[in-house]
Amino acid sequence: MVTKTGLEVVQIPAGKMKNFSYLIYCPNSGEALAVDPSFGAKALLAEVEERKVNLQLVLNTHGHNDHLAGNEEVLAATGARLAAHPLAVAEADLLLDEGMTVTLGDTAIEILFTPGHHPGHVCLHLPGALITGDVLFVTRVGRADLAGSDPAALYHSLRRLAGFPGETLVYPGHDYGPKPVSTIAYERQHNPFMRCEDLESFLRLRMG
Ligand SMILES: [Zn+2]
C-alpha cells in the first residue's frame, strides 16, 4: 500500500501472537525502515531482499518481547541500526523521543511519544498513516494492566491518535480486529475505547 506522499508500507503477519511487523520504504531512494521484527524476521528479510531496498533502521514501538523478538536476526543480516525509546531499549543505537523525525528519501516520519501500554512506547506518523504499535488496534486498545502500564497515559495517547484526520490509515501492532488495517475515522466510529468521552469511562471499560 502506498501512502499519500509515496512511502510504501508492507504489513507482515509475524507469529502466533498475531503480531504485525512492517517494512516501510521510499520506492525512489530504496531507503527502508523495519518496525518490530517480532517473530517474522525471516519474512521481513525476504521482503527486503525481494524489493531490493536498503534497510537502515530497525525500530521498536516498545519494549515487549513479542515486538523485540527478531531484532538480532534482522540487525545481523542487514547491518541496520536499532532505534527505540530509551525506556524500551536503553542500549539502542538511536534513542527516540517526541518530535524526532526519521527520514526515508525525502519523506520525514515523525516520532510520537505515546506511553500507557508501555512506558517507552512510540507511534510513527508518516504522511497519511500511523503505525500504532500496541496503543491502538482495529476496534481495540492495548492492555493497561501490565508492569509499567499507565491506564490514564494510555487514554491520553489514544485521544491524541483520535485527533488525526479521519482518512489517516491505522497500521496496528497486532491483528486483533475485524480487518488488518483501518482508518482513524473507522476507529472513531467502531472502537469502543476511542468512543469513550472521558477518562473515567475509559478506565471503567479498560480496567473494569
Ligand atoms: Zn506490548
Automatic annotation (TrEMBL):
Report domain Metallo-beta-lactamase positions.
18-174
SUPFAM superfamilies under this entry?
A: Metallo-hydrolase/oxidoreductase
Domain of life here? Bacteria
Indicate the secretion signal residues: none
Pfam families in alphabetical order:
Lactamase_B
Q: A GO term (biological process) for this protein?
A: glutathione metabolic process
**Protein's name in the database:** Metallo-beta-lactamase domain-containing protein
Lineage in the entry?
Bacteria, Pseudomonadati, Thermodesulfobacteriota, Desulfuromonadia, Desulfuromonadales
